[in-house]
Amino acid sequence: MDNKRGAEDERSRGLAPGETEQSLTDRQGHPITDNQNIRTIGNRGPSTLENYHFIEKISHFDRERVPERVVHGRGAGAHGYFEAYGKLGDEPVSKYTRAKLFQEAGKQTPVFVRFSSVIHGGHSPETLRDPRGFAVKFYTEDGNWDLVGNNLKIFFIRDAMKFPDMVHAFKPDPVTNVQSMERFFDFVSQSPEATHMITFLFSPWGVPANYRQMQGSGVNTYKWVNAEGKGVLVKYHWEPLKQGIRNLTQDEAEKIQAKNFNHATQDLYEAIEKGDYPEWELQVQWMSDDEHPELDFDPLDDTKLWPPEQFPMLPVGKMVLNRNPANYFAEVEQAAFGTGVLVDGLDFSDDKMLQGRTFSYSDTQRYRVGSNYLQLPINAPKKRVATNQRDGQMAFYVDVAPGQNPHINYEPSSLGGLTEVDRPGEPHEPLYNAKLTRQKIDRENNFAQAGDTYRKLEQWERDDLIANLVGALGTCADHIRETMISHFTAADADYGRRVAEGLAAAGSAGNGHVGTKAANDGMEMAAELGHSTDGY
User: Shortest CA distance to 284 belongs to which of 183, 153, 167?
Assistant: First the structure.
């Protein structure tokens, strides 16, 4: 097949005798005359090996699930559009970026969004305490742009080297297969930069009420580049101005979970079905592309917020989600995002997490979905594609250009192959003069912003934060508790005092259980409430 259109034309070829448009076939196009019974010797069996239709049907069924995402396994998604304002605040956006999707007021770009939880698996309750993924695929005229982030504006760590260890510590224990708060806080206590994220996560901000009423953020620091090649540092934030923001206390989350563990997916689907389309405004913070020694933190540190009073949130456009997926697996599950998927006018900063994620995300998609995952409709750009990439598992068309010599799958060539494109603007060329090294950043300042966040929480949010931390730390060894209390105290004296008092009142961690007190109560309750019965 020479091109995508050819593949589609082949699939729509005519009907065999006796078939209608609704006739069942197998993947080979064979009409199925009996989809109820396997082939057997007599009507009681045994069956025979050449049950081709059954083998094809069951072997495909056995493979219907691609490997689950290591993180962001539980998700929901929707289609919509992004509408640009043409400005960054009150200034022409072209002053800062030449990215075409932002330039013209009213310009609309199709998008697909996948919301998700992070640590928990594909069928976990949507009420569990966890950051929420907020990934947006923009199908721009220059190709795809993926803005991959979370609902919270910061993260646990600032260096990608620590990411596999962090996920291992947060996932279930490899022996018990039970999520362990001692393992969780063992890692966190040795990673003081996580104190800020923990303050958000164990407050009601750790359980958004649903996907529609939560914020989103790119988390990492990126760059914008204008036509002259000048770059500025930027952070992206999605604000649900129409719906507002709603979070849940632990008690409220547990009540919802008892009735519906798919509540956020259902809420998003039904809102769109009835025409109550959710909207977010995209707001951008920017600062000059340098180290900013006047700040007490490094602006590339993704455990930190950029203070909005110094770096205002400036609107650049809005996003509206107005169409549900037609098939969850084909669109939501196979949707593949990557932090390296940028268009001209957008660029990478030196953010250590961003640098690591940029390899990890696309590599994960090639493993999880396949080397040709970008040929799937949900991932393919809505513009022409012409590459010299060939073959691999499930390649079902070739990215050739009209008139391209099909013998030439390399570049440069004088025999009719693909050619490079003229650069649309001046290149962005940052200058470096430093040793290649392995070192921490200079301005860690691990606790100041955590204290600021704690003091800004409302009283009911602080109460829930303390209760959740005391419950989670209740299973931890004394030295882990003491380290975490010291971190909370360094952030805010009242913060540390309240956690310490709560843990003292709760007593020793040595209860012989692997779960939290609440989890243990649930386990024991199941045995007590279960009704005995005779076998059958």
Answer: 153
Share of the chain above pLDDT 70, in %: 95
State the alpha helices, DSSP H only, in 178-317. 181-189, 195-201, 250-257, 263-273
pLDDT category of residue 305 using cuts at 50, 70 and 90 = very high
| CA–CA dist 516, 484 (Å, integer) | 17
Query: pLDDT digits over 375-409, tens only?
Result: 999 999 998 888 888 888 888 888 888 888 999 88
Q: Look at residue 510 in the predicted model and tell me its pLDDT.
A: 55
Helix axes of 181-189 and 478-491: crossing angle, nearest 10 degrees: 50
Active-site residue (options: 3, 72, 263, 372): 72
Is 150 designated active site?
A: yes
Distant-in-sequence, close-in-space partners of 8: CB < 8 Å, separation ≥ 6: none
3-state secondary structure (DSSP) of residue 151: coil
Contacts of 134 (CB under 8 A, 6+ apart): 113, 115, 149, 150, 151, 214, 215, 216, 217, 238
296's CB contacts (< 8 A; 6+ apart) are 443, 445, 448
Cα separations (Å) of 275 from 26, 77, 78, 270, 438?
37, 16, 13, 9, 52
Q: Which residue in 3, 79, 120, 150 is the catalytic one? A: 150
Separation CA 144–CA 176 (nearest Å): 42
Beta bridge partners of 286: 234
pLDDT at 6 exceeding the cut of 60:
no
Mean of the per-residue pLDDT values of the chain:
90
Tokens representing residue 386 in the block: 């012409």
Which residues, at least 6 apart from 501, have a Cβ–Cβ distance to it below 8 Å? none
* Among the listed residues 487, 89, 439, 407, the one whose alpha carbon sits nearest the alpha carbon of residue 298: 439
Question: pLDDT band for position 511 (50/70/90)?
Answer: low
Is 72 one of the catalytic residues?
Answer: yes
- Give tens-digit pLDDT for 83-101: 999 999 999 999 999 999 9
Q: Give pTM, 2 decimals.
A: 0.90
3-class DSSP state of 102: helix
pLDDT digit string (tens) for 413-430?
Answer: 899 888 888 878 898 988
How far apart are the C-alpha atoms of 435 and 114, rounded to whole Å? Answer: 40
